[in-house]
Amino acid sequence: MAKQFPSLTPELKDFIGRQHIFFTASATADSRINLSPKGLGGFRITGDNEVVFLNLTGSGNETAAHMRADGRLTIMFCAFEGPAMILRLYGRGRVARKGTEEYARYLASAFEGNEPPGARQIVIQEIDLVQTSCGYGVPLHDYKEERPTLVRWAEAKGEEGIAEYWREKNMVSMDGLSTGMD
User: Any residues with CB less than 8 A from the CB of 88 and at least 6 apart, and which?
Assistant: First the structure.
């Protein structure tokens, strides 16, 4: 049932384009495994073996810490509508922090310069393996809409409030690893 590919095919790119949610998984040899759901339309395919996503401000910043310390990153998509399928992208990631030249370049090229409130990083994954599996056990769900809560929260905080939140909550991981936001 599982199939492996060295890169994204046009069919798999089309599948990704139809999804409303994806999940990221990262860890170091000595840390907890972080598994996070992501949405709000922040995922882009930038090549057959490269994808990026806008990482918005959250309660932690585990992915950034893991990318600095280890680099391994898995991204997973599940079909909740239509034919069943799970798609995993394996590879190595790095973080482009807001305010850097690399961040600005990806924001312009992949996101047409549109930066949502609370954006803090762009995560870049270099894919070394793509794998599909059946997904027969994934339930069907109908997509309703994106939650506006995170964007509203970031708008209410404003730039200074977000920066203060980063200093309080996003400088180190739960395992004490630097996130690179210093």
Answer: 74, 75, 76, 77, 130, 131, 132, 133
- As a whole number, mean pLDDT of residues 43-60 equals 96
Sorted by where each begins, the domain ranges of the chain are 3-136+144-169
Beta carbons of 44 and 51 less than 8 angstroms apart: yes
List phi, psi (to 5°) of 173: -75, 175
- Cα separation, 39 vs 151, in Å, equals 12
CB 65 within 8 A of CB 177: yes
Q: What is the pTM of this model?
A: 0.95
The CATH superfamily holding the domain 3-136+144-169 is Electron Transport, Fmn-binding Protein; Chain A (2.30.110.10)
pLDDT above 80 (res 151): yes
Flag whether pLDDT at 1 surpasses 80: no
